[in-house]
Specification:
It is a single chain. With 228 residues, the protein is α/β, with parallel strands linked by helices. The chain has two domains: 32 residues, no CATH class; 186 residues, Rossmann fold. Helix content is 42%, strand content 22%. It has a seven-stranded mixed beta sheet with strand order 3-2-1-4-5-7-6, sandwiched between helices. α1 crosses α2. It is globular, with a radius of gyration of 20 Å. The termini are far apart. The structure holds S-adenosylmethionine. The site of S-adenosylmethionine has 19 residues, from β2 and α8.
Length: 228
C-alpha cells in the first residue's frame, strides 16, 4: 500500500477515520512516554518548579555530598541546572562544574541562570551524544546524575567511560526515582525507571561499587559509588 492509497483509504472509510484517530492518540502517548518531551520550555518549568524542593531537598543533597572547594563535578543530564547552580556555589572559585546534556536548549537555559548569579565562569556546558558523556579521562572528582540514570542505562560502554573520567578516589552519584509506589505520581510511565538493585548490579559490572547510601529522600534512591 503506498502513501496515496493510505490517505485515500482513511478519507473514504469510517474504519479509516478510526485508524487515523488511533494513530494520532498513539503518537501523543508516545510523546508523553518517550522521555524526550517535545516542549522543552514545559520540561524546564517542570524541573524548576518550586514545589520540587519539598521532595528533592537539594540543599540536603549537596550537604550530604561533602563537596570541597576546588573540586570538579560533572552534572550529567544537567537539564535546566537545578543542581548545576548549587554545585557551582559549592565548588567555589577554584572548582569547576561540567554541565553535560544532549539538549542544547537545556544547556542554554542552564548557562543563562548561572550568568544571572554571576558564576557562569565556574561551569562549562557540554553538548554530549546520547551514548557518550564526553568527559576527559581522570578529570572529575564527582559524577552526579539526578533523574538521568534511566535515560542512559541502556548505552553499553557509557559507564566504562564515566569510570575512566574519575580521578583517584572519585565518586559517582545516582539519584533517581524508585520504580514502585515510593516515587508517587510521575508525569511519565514508571516502566522507564530502573530499580535500585539493578543500578547497583550494572555499576558492579564496570567495577563501580556501592560505597554509601543516603536514605532521606522519600521518592528517590541516592547512591554513591567508587571505583574498585
Ligand atoms: C529529568 S531531566 C533531569 C535534569 C537534572 N538532572 C535535574 O535533576 O533537574 C533529564 C536530563 O537528561 C538529559 N539527557 C537525556 N539523555 C541524556 C544522555 N544520554 N546524556 C546526557 N544527558 C541526557 C535530558 O536532556 C534532560 O535534560
Amino acid at each position: 500500500m503506498n502513501i496515496e492509497s493510505i490517505i485515500s483509504f482513511t478519507r473514504q472509510s469510517r474504519l479509516g477515520h478510526w485508524c487515523l484517530l488511533l494513530a494520532f492518540l498513539l503518537t501523543g502517548l508516545t510523546a508523553g512516554c518517550s522521555h524526550q518531551p517535545w516542549d522543552i520550555d514545559t520540561y524546564i518549568q517542570n524541573l524548576e518548579r518550586p514545589e520540587r524542593d519539598e521532595y528533592q531537598q537539594p540543599e540536603k543533597v549537596i550537604e550530604a555530598l561533602n563537596i570541597m572547594p576546588g573540586m570538579v563535578v560533572a552534572d550529567v543530564g544537567a537539564g535546566s541546572g537545578y543542581f548545576t547552580r548549587r554545585f557551582a556555589k559549592a565548588v567555589g572559585e577554584t572548582g569547576h562544574v561540567l554541565a553535560v546534556d544532549i539538549e542544547q536548549k537545556m544547556l542554554d537555559y542552564n548557562k543563562q541562570e548561572l550568568e544571572k548569579l554571576g558564576i557562569a565562569n565556574r561551569a562549562s556546558f557540554i553538548l554530549a551524544k546520547p551514548d557518550d558523556p564526553s568527559l576527559s579521562q581522570n578529570s572529575v572528582d564527582l559524577v552526579f546524575l539526578c533523574n538521568a540514570y534511566h535515560h542512559v542505562e541502556h548505552h553499553a560502554d557509557y559507564w566504562a567511560k564515566i569510570k575512566s573520567a574519575l580521578k583517584p578516589n572519585g565518586r559517582v552519584i545516582i539519584v533517581d526515582f524508585y520504580h514502585d509506589e515510593r516515587s508517587g505520581k510521575l508525569s511519565f510511565s514508571k516502566h522507564h525507571l530502573v530499580p535500585r538493585e539493578r543500578v547497583i548490579e550494572n555499576m558492579e559490572k564496570v567495577g563501580l561499587t556501592l560505597s554509601k547510601e543516603h536514605t532521606f529522600l522519600p521518592r528517590q534512591y541516592f547512591l554513591e559509588f567508587k571505583g574498585s
